[in-house]
Design a protein that fits this description.
The chain is of the alpha+beta class. The chain has helices at 17-32, 64-75, and strands spanning 41-45, 48-56, 85-88. Helix 2 (64-75) links the parallel strand 2 (48-56) and strand 3. Helix 1 crosses helix 2. The protein is globular and about 45 Å long.
């Protein structure tokens, strides 16, 4: 997914993005039936919203609550490609 591709997710973002993002998060929370599980980072640029999750390589994994939150987000219409997992490690480990 390219940042400039506004049609890939189709969610509005702009001067009222803070209100929209809050409503988006609450909609996912409602669909999930709980607050826990939200991914680490929500980014918005040129109409594209991305939820990123950061995981320490070979020591961290997606929790059940995060899988449930992802399923709820998909149910409210957010595409799977809006959910990258960023795996990281410290150099030399």
């Amino acid at each position: 997914m390219a940042w400039g591709d506004q049609s890939s997710i189709g969610l509005p973002c702009g001067s009222e993005s803070d209100c929209y993002q809050e409503a988006l998060l609450r909609g996912i929370e409602d669909a999930a039936g709980k607050r826990g599980g939200c991914w680490d980072v929500l980014c918005c640029r040129r109409g594209v919203h991305v939820f990123a999750e950061s995981k320490l390589k070979e020591k961290d994994r997606i929790r059940a609550s995060q899988r449930q939150w992802l399923q709820a987000a998909l149910a409210v219409g957010i595409r799977l490609d809006a959910f990258p997992i960023v795996e990281w490690s410290l150099e030399g480990e």
